[in-house]
């Protein structure tokens, strides 16, 4: 599928009446944030981006739970909080809903950073675990109207992931270690969930 077809599909969701939620998922480094932001920008006011990563547990809490070394794994998120947000977003007439946002520059979530006004027809949400079938993540799929799974070839995904880690301050060695460590473990967990997606897309082929 090419970009114009994908954009047409997203516009159809936005024009479908009421509030729709489109999920974009895939392994770490698959291009989820890039594709989601591009869609929201192209829809020009009809959509907003709400990232799952806003529900990362704070670094202090990860340290207390002794999970800081596994940051990014499913149990390092407030998954129940994310599910609760999606349930609120299913209704477009509850006033403005404020969603959190993850700031990579500081590696921390910021509360109430993304306003979702009442009546906005489409929310685009992106994250690794939208199709995971273990509770409480398993509740996410039923709250999304469509889910698109991004699956670039593994070499490209790994290169994108290493580049992202470098961009946010990692040395070459640190970036490579992160991509080959926890990120790779999470990628193996996510890969089988593609079977539950509505579309499987190679983001390098969208132009």
If you had to describe this structure to a student in words, what would you say it looks like?
The chain is α/β, with parallel strands linked by helices and 207 residues long. It is 35% helix and 20% strand. The chain has helices at residues 3-14, 32-43, 59-64, 79-89, 154-167, 172-180, 182-190; strands at 20-26, 47-51, 97-103, 108-116, 122-126, 146-150, 199-201. The strands form two sheets. A five-stranded parallel beta sheet has the order 2-5-1-6-7. A hairpin with a 4-residue loop joins β3 (97-103) and β4 (108-116). α5 (154-167) packs across α6 (172-180). The protein is globular and about 50 Å long. The N and C termini lie close together (9 Å).
Give me the secondary-structure topology.
Layout: H1 3-14, E1 20-26, H2 32-43, E2 47-51, H3 59-64, H4 79-89, E3 97-103, E4 108-116, E5 122-126, E6 146-150, H5 154-167, H6 172-180, H7 182-190, E7 199-201
Parallel strand pairs: 1-5, 1-6, 2-5, 6-7
Antiparallel strand pairs: 3-4
Helix pairs in contact: 5-6
């Amino acid at each position: 599928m090419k970009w114009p077809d994908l954009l047409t599909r997203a516009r159809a969701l936005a024009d479908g009446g009421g509030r729709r939620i489109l999920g974009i998922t895939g392994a770490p480094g698959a291009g989820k944030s890039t594709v989601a932001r591009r869609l929201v920008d192209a829809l020009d006011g009809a959509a907003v981006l709400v990232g799952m990563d806003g529900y990362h547990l704070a670094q202090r809490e990860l340290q207390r739970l002794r999970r800081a070394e596994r940051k990014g794994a499913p149990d390092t998120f407030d998954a129940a909080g994310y599910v609760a947000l999606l349930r609120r977003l299913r209704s477009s007439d509850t006033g403005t809903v404020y969603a959190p946002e993850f700031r990579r520059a500081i590696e921390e979530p910021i509360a109430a950073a993304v306003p979702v006004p009442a009546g906005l027809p489409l929310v685009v949400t992106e994250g690794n675990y939208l199709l995971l079938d273990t509770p409480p993540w398993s509740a996410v799929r039923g709250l999304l109207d469509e889910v698109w799974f991004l699956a670039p070839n593994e070499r490209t995904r790994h290169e994108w992931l290493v580049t992202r880690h470098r961009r946010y301050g990692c040395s070459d060695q640190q970036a490579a270690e992160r991509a080959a460590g926890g990120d790779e473990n999470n990628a193996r967990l996510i890969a089988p969930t593609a079977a539950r997606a509505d579309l499987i897309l190679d983001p390098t082929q969208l132009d």
